[in-house]
Design a protein that fits this description.
60 residues; mainly alpha
Length: 60
């Protein structure tokens, strides 16, 4: 059993959920007067969710 792998997978899935919520709710994110597009959050949600799922599969 690898506790670090489980913690990393859970952390990635939480981040994916936060990105998905931001994209679904349409919450604006502005960094140095540049607005980050909603599509970026959908892409990040997908990538982090895939990585989290891959870590759970690796645990087996």
């Amino acid at each position: 059993m690898k506790p670090f792998t489980i913690i990393a997978a859970l952390l990635l899935l939480v981040i994916a959920a936060a990105h998905a919520y931001r994209a679904y709710a349409g919450l604006p994110v502005v960094v140095d007067n540049i607005q980050i597009p909603i599509m970026a959050s959908w892409v990040c949600a997908g990538v982090t969710a895939i990585l989290g799922i891959m870590l759970f599969v690796e645990r087996i």
